[in-house]
Amino acid sequence: MQQWIKEVARGKRGARDLIYEEARQAAEAIVAGQASAAQIAAFLIAERIKTESPEELLAFTEALRHYAEKLNLSKGIRERVIDFAGPYTGRHSFLATIPASILLAERGIPAFLHSSDSLPPKYGTSSKEVLQKLGIFIGGAAQAAKTLEQLSIGFAAAEQLCSPFSRLRQIREDIGVRTVLNTAEKLVNFAGSDRLMMGAFHRTAIQKMHPVFTRLSYKEVFIVQGIEGSEDVPVHRGSFVFTIKNGDISSFILNPEAYGLHADERMLNKPLSAERQAQKIEAVLSGEQSADVEYERKQVIMNTALRYYLFRHCPTIEEGVRIAERQLKEKAGLATLNKWRMSFTRQ
């Protein structure tokens, strides 16, 4: 491990990117628990200062995949499931991806969510915490596969499916900064999905990740310039939406105002606790249109409509908006949420 630390920690002028084979050896030592805590911390901090290369990110992603348990899904579900990879650091703003995924599931589009307890540097509210407040039992791979098969919705706690995450948590908390793991953990692909949706803060980061996806198993990757670097677009500003397919990358700007869904940024509620997140999700899925949930309601409609369009469920975003609005009015998403809750009492 020392030889790889020396290469990436030589300082601004001397540090170099590791080639894939070198990075894979370093990643394997870290993920498999062969490196000491001091060596792991030194390597991760040096990488943070140097910034990881696409080859290094790929190496860590594939090392984590090697130690991850995969969901046992039928061919039909596996070919259609969407992997929604939100930040494991958690969020301070509304987790629109949860109600949006529930609405997708109601229309028969399998949606898979995953996270851990919140991590540094943000320590926001995690999707795991919010789902627990909503009454969703957090089980392992078998439970997530079961609800995906039956209800087209599933969630898994990453640390239950990939033991290196548990081993590395204390080190990550001790150093307290973003590392290569913050991106790699979102790409483990527990569901074996062909399609991934994730977020990024900056367009430069998206461009940098592009080469990685050409060597992973995804057929389509959708990356949005989402709120807090998540897969959720805000509705107080426009957002870039990128599609990576067959090695090519294309993009467009999504403007909520064009769909009558713009909201003033002052209406953006944060930070939101897990309990408050759950309350707002239930309110939106119940069809509530009060001022208290106006931003969140518009955000759920916008993100659901975007997903319907990207996943070819409808030909235009406008039609996706109409579908999502109708689902909320008819409380269709609330019915699916209740079915998801009830699925754990019929074990």
What this model shows, in words?
- The structure is a single chain.
- By secondary structure, this protein is α/β, with parallel strands linked by helices.
- It folds into 2 domains: 2-66, Transferase, Pyrimidine Nucleoside Phosphorylase, Chain A, domain 3 (Up-down Bundle), CATH 1.20.970; 75-342, Nucleoside phosphorylase/phosphoribosyltransferase catalytic domain (Pyrimidine Nucleoside Phosphorylase, Chain A, domain 2, 3-Layer(aba) Sandwich).
- Helices cover 48% and strands 11% of the residues.
- The protein is built from 16 helices and 7 strands.
- It has helices at 2-8, 20-31, 37-50, 54-66, 75-80, 97-106, 127-133, 141-151, 158-161, 163-175, 181-184, 203-213, 274-285, 294-310, 317-329, 332-342, and strands spanning 82-85, 111-115, 153-157, 195-199, 220-224, 239-245, 248-254.
- The chain has a 7-stranded mixed sheet, sandwiched between helices.
- β1, α6 and β2 (111-115) form a beta-alpha-beta unit.
- α6 crosses α14 (294-310).
- The radius of gyration is 20 Å and the shape is globular.
- It starts with a helix and ends in a 5-residue tail after the last helix.
Structural class: alpha/beta
- Major sheet, described briefly? 7 strands, mixed
Under the CATH scheme, which architecture of the largest domain would be assigned? 3-Layer(aba) Sandwich
User: Shape from CA axes?
Assistant: globular
Low-confidence stretches: none
Q: What is the count of DSSP helices, taking H or I runs of 4+ residues?
A: 16
Organism: Bacillus sonorensis L12
Keywords: Amino-acid biosynthesis, Aromatic amino acid biosynthesis, Glycosyltransferase, Transferase, Tryptophan biosynthesis
Protein name: Glycosyl transferase
Domain Glycosyl transferase family 3 N-terminal: 3-68
